[in-house]
Amino acid sequence: FIPNAMAHCPLCTGATIAGVSITRSLGLDDSIVGVFVGGMIISTALWLNNILKKRGVKGNNKLRLFGLIIITTILTFVTFYYAGLIGRGNPYRIMGVESILIGSFSGAAISLAVFYYSNSLKNKNGGKVLFNYQTMVLSIGGLIANAILFALIF
């Protein structure tokens, strides 16, 4: 018996902090990394929701997922604040709003939409995915398209 591998949110957050530092040194806007931060937030919340369901936690699934998204978002941005990635001294802004926040909320919206779209495709196909790793491919594709759009605009 081999246990399942599981990602851990603090590790993802640390990697994101390093990623922002690298992209800043390359002159890229924080909104581009923010797109992937939003994807990380949604995937972490979905992962935690699945763990809770497997452990038999009762309740409204959508409400629980919404709560997990809020908690994951807060924990991620509090970490970013203390790491100095967001806050008063941050010059990386779009119309006065932190670039990483705009990218994060955009990436989160894309990730959540893709997750439900993938489930819809699966349900229309008799409970089977159209191709292997369907949700992952659609999610990463949507996030990359969003990041390219931000790179072209900002």
**Largest sheet, order of strands side by side?**
1-2
The separation of the N and C termini measures: 49 Å
Multimeric state of these chains? single chain
Percent in strands: under 5%
Q: Note the overall shape.
A: globular
Number of strands: 2
Gyration radius over CA: 17 Å
What is the H-and-E element order? HHHEEHH
Main β-sheet description = 2 strands, antiparallel
What fraction, in percent, of the residue positions are helical?
A: over 70%
Q: Residue-averaged pLDDT, rounded?
A: 86
- Overall structural class, as computed from helix and strand content, comes to mainly alpha
Low-confidence stretches: 1-8
> What is the overall number of helices?
5
Care to describe what's here?
- It is a single chain.
- The protein is an all-alpha fold.
- It is 72% helix and 3% strand.
- It contains 5 helices and 2 strands.
- The chain starts with 8 loop residues before the first helix and ends with a helix.
- The N terminus is likely disordered.
Which SSEs are present, and which pair or pack?
Blueprint lengths: L8 H17 L4 H25 L6 H23 L9 E2 L2 E2 H26 L9 H20 L1
Antiparallel strand pairs: 1-2
Helix pairs in contact: 1-2, 1-3, 2-3, 2-4, 2-5, 4-5
